């Protein structure tokens, strides 16, 4: 089964069990991938998190029931996963712009999100510059934080981590230690799933460093791998997500490679992040 089909299978599973308390673990299992890689791929391709997709779909279905049935609002609140009618009403108003009572009376318009169907765009209108490289294992040094995949805490926490290291001098100290083949500061995602009970990742801000480790920083060994190294051109924060989307929506479907499941890297240079000519890279381990 290809990765597009696997992703659609997971989406169909979400729809079938939309009223259940679904965990990322259960959903990702349908796609035969880890929680982190499913969550990341889903967000890259759809521009929405798994949790937000489920919330939108449930509130869309709730709106349909309000319009077409006489079920009590309190019963619908519990049915679609809200502990109180007040919490349901607040979430409903945020999505639809009207209250459940107004929806029942057909006052105002509803913002309903339809069932998602993955369609991959293979037109390749914009060229992608990349190279395939093979490297033995290498060492990076830096700092790490563990982020839970529950409630997508990693999505919220990683940007805060970057704000911290940019403000406390960590980036400057890492730049002085950079003496490896990769020139720049790295964002490294390490999937910690050893078994189904582990639902977290380690995220590293690091740099490649040859030689002994340092007292100030932790050391991580990146395993030997074949890598797809993709060029990223343009200012942050928009340029990097654009290339990630191209990789998953255009490059993977038209190549024989799969993601190897080992740590992936984002490489940031010391150029002005707002520069139109900013150069960065994405390193994806391949099999």
UniProtKB/TrEMBL annotation:
Gene3D superfamilies in alphabetical order: Homeodomain-like, Regulatory factor, effector binding domain
Residue ranges of every copy of the HTH araC/xylS-type domain listed in the record: 8-106
Transcription as UniProt keyword: yes
Keywords: DNA-binding, Transcription, Transcription regulation
Keyword Transcription regulation part of the UniProt annotation: yes
InterPro entries xref list: AraC_E-bd, Cass2, Homeodomain-like_sf, HTH_AraC, HTH_AraC-typ_CS, MarA-like, Reg_factor_effector_dom_sf, Tscrpt_reg_AraC-type_HTH
Pfam families attached to this UniProt entry: Cass2, HTH_18
Name of the protein in its database record: AraC family transcriptional regulator
């Amino acid at each position: 089964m290809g990765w597009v089909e696997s992703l659609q299978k997971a989406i169909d599973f979400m729809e079938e069990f939309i009223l259940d308390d679904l965990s990322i673990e259960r959903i990702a299992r349908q796609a035969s991938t880890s929680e982190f890689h499913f969550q990341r791929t889903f967000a890259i391709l759809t521009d929405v998190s798994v949790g937000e997709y489920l919330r939108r779909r449930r509130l869309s279905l709730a709106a349909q029931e309000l319009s077409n049935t006489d079920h009590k609002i309190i019963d619908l609140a519990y049915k679609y996963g809200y502990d109180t009618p007040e919490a349901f009403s607040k979430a409903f108003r945020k999505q639809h712009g009207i209250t459940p009572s107004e929806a029942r009376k057909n006052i105002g318009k509803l913002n309903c999100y339809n069932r998602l169907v993955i369609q991959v765009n293979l037109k390749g209108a914009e060229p992608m510059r990349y190279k395939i490289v093979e490297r033995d294992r290498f060492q990076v040094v830096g700092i790490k934080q563990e982020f839970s995949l529950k409630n997508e805490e990693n999505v919220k926490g990683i940007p805060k981590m970057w704000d911290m290291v940019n403000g406390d001098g960590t980036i400057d100290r890492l730049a002085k230690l950079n003496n490896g083949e990769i020139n720049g500061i790295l964002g490294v995602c390490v999937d910690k799933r050893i078994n189904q009970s582990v639902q977290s990742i380690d995220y590293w801000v690091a740099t490649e460093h040859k030689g002994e480790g340092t007292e100030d920083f932790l050391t991580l060994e990146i395993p030997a791998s074949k890598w797809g190294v993709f060029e990223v051109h343009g200012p942050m924060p928009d340029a990097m997500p654009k290339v990630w989307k191209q990789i998953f929506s255009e490059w993977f479907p038209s190549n024989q490679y799969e993601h190897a499941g080992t740590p992936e890297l984002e490489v940031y240079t010391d150029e002005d992040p707002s520069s139109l000519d900013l150069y960065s890279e994405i390193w994806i381990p391949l099999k």
